[in-house]
Specification:
The protein has about 140 residues and is an alpha+beta fold. The chain is built from five helices and four strands, in the order E-E-H-H-H-E-E-H-H. It starts with 5 loop residues before the first strand and ends in a 5-residue tail after the last helix.
Amino acid sequence: MGGAEIKVEKIGEYEFHVEMIPPAKGFHLAMKLTQVIGTIAGGDMSKALSSLSSDDIAEMTTIFAAYSKVKTPAGNLVPVKDMQDVLFAGKYGLMFKWLLLCTEANFGSFLGDLQGLANDLGTRLNRMFGKANSPNM
């Protein structure tokens, strides 16, 4: 890890330091998240949650753990991947809050831009195909 922006946030008694994951690793997750966000936007929260499998959650956890650190009581920053079994044992709420932090840190701006991207795409498609289907042509 080195050089990328780091988001620091305290969740409960733990201080997490989340580094941005490289785009090559993050692209697949970004595409999966767009499916979930689209389903949420459609108003079907239960379908959105079920669109993430346990394998998806495990993949997110593995990738994010490699780019996250947690401050120990002694003040040392330790990679989450080295202590996630102990850190999250019986603390699934903590784990999901951490996953949300990692998701926000890595994809927040992208997810926020999705509406604008969708509008831009719609405008461009209308421009391309709207003219082709125009009665004046």
